[in-house]
Design goal:
Blueprint lengths: L4 E8 L5 E2 L3 H5 L10 H8 L3 E2 L12 H12 L3 H4 L4 E6 L9 H9 L5 E6 L4 H14 L5 E8 L11 H10 L7 H7 L5 E8 L9 E10 L8 E2 L2 E4 L2 E4 L5 H6 L6 E2 L1 H23 L8 E4 L5 H12 L13 H4 L6 H11 L8 E8 L4 E9 L1
Helix pairs in contact: 3-5
């Protein structure tokens, strides 16, 4: 295994930021009524602005287009882009079931044949793409690789996606509001794409990030589904859309994103710290060495929860070393860790010798990534 360096980072955010007061005018009113939970969710999640890949009078950008734009920013020009040996893409929100997301990004770039890899799931897909790119270069299979994390959640959150379900409910009772598990995520998620270039040599000028290690795990063997789309939950069982009728797809908003907030609250923090204890032991890792801690937070609500749990386990990661951009960019799922790294790298915040530690939790069925990078 040879040393691997992140030599460039880039991000693409569509259009201008959308404020909390503007959200419902963009996403629309379900059944013509303002959401009852929107003010509560926004107060807890701490997000002030986010980006959407569409708006009144604007071209709707696909996930593949967002990702391609981030990659194009990564390179100086089309000629340099031709040197890419591997394209590794992760997303929660591909534009279609088939072809794969990486195939569509490759198509949007319009470049010569290149090896591709696609990862589907939720927040950790960006880090799965990240690790695949790292391992490709570390093994010597390629000299360079591009990894991406991207989301275009907004089109799953628009009011029209829920109207058939509301119409069905209104036949039975005068309710007019979608269930909390579905409304919750409408005010949490946003759009954008991040990209990282991995190479077998560091930058001759400026800083690079040497990848020390990346560790991942899943708790799906013992925990049920928490966040999901393309199906419905019956008790603890997830019923996928292929076992539903086309009528049920509409009447139950099967393709909307849903979150079991009870399961989320009970498990997301303690299971993540359980795995961190395993990583610390495996890597003989002293968290006191960390200069920058980049936790992917879905909500500011979890900042203090994580900090308190770390304290209970005697794991030292003081709030002074935490760095997030959730309030400005929103929760962009698989792209969020890329956005934090991009800001540190491109805004001159890093100094050689510093340690950068990433934490990426995923609530879909509880999986986690930790990664350690050294500034060189």
């Amino acid at each position: 295994m040879q040393e691997v360096y992140i030599t460039r980072m880039a991000k693409f955010l569509p259009y201008e930021p959308v404020s909390n007061d503007e959200m419902e005018s963009v996403l629309g009113l379900v059944n013509g009524k303002p959401s009852k939970v929107r003010p509560i969710i926004l107060r807890n999640n701490g997000i002030k602005t986010r980006h959407y890949a569409f708006g009144a009078g604007k071209e709707t950008l696909t996930n593949a287009q967002l990702t391609a734009k981030a990659i194009e920013i990564l390179y100086k020009d089309k000629e340099e882009l031709k040197e890419m040996e591997l394209l590794s893409c992760g997303t929660t929100s591909p534009d279609q079931v088939l072809p794969s997301h990486a195939s569509m990004v490759h198509g949007a770039l319009g470049i010569d044949p290149v090896e591709i890899a696609s990862f589907s799931g939720a927040c950790n897909t960006g880090m799965q793409a990240f690790k695949y790119a790292y391992l490709s270069v570390a093994s010597g299979d390629t000299k360079n690789a591009v990894a991406t994390g991207s989301e275009r959640m907004s089109k799953l959150l628009t009011a029209d996606k829920f109207q058939p379900e509301i119409d069905k409910v209104n036949e039975i009772e005068s309710n007019g509001f979608i269930a909390f598990e579905k409304d919750f995520l409408r005010w949490m998620l946003s759009d954008g794409a991040g990209a990282a270039l991995f190479q077998d040599k560091p930058n001759p000028d400026g800083v690079s990030l040497k990848v020390e290690w990346i560790d991942m795990t899943s708790f799906a063997g013992s925990l049920e589904t928490c966040m999901y789309g393309g199906g419905v939950k019956e008790g603890s069982e997830l019923i996928g859309y292929t076992d539903m009728t086309a009528e049920e797809w509409l009447n139950q908003s099967a393709f909307s994103l849903k979150q079991d907030t009870r399961l989320l609250g009970e498990n997301i923090v303690p299971r993540g710290v359980d795995f961190l204890e395993t990583v610390i032991k495996k890597r003989n890792f002293d968290t006191k060495s960390v200069d920058w801690f980049l936790p992917h937070l879905s909500s500011e609500f979890f900042r203090q929860k994580i900090h308190e749990e770390l304290g209970r386990r005697n794991i030292e990661l003081p709030l002074e070393v935490w760095y997030t951009n959730l309030s400005r960019l929103g929760n962009v799922g698989s792209a969020s860790p890329y956005f934090m790294l991009e800001e540190l790298m491109n805004e001159g915040k890093l100094k050689k010798g510093q340690k950068v530690f990433l934490m990426v939790p995923e609530s879909a069925r509880f999986s986690y990534t930790y990664a350690l990078l050294t500034v060189v």
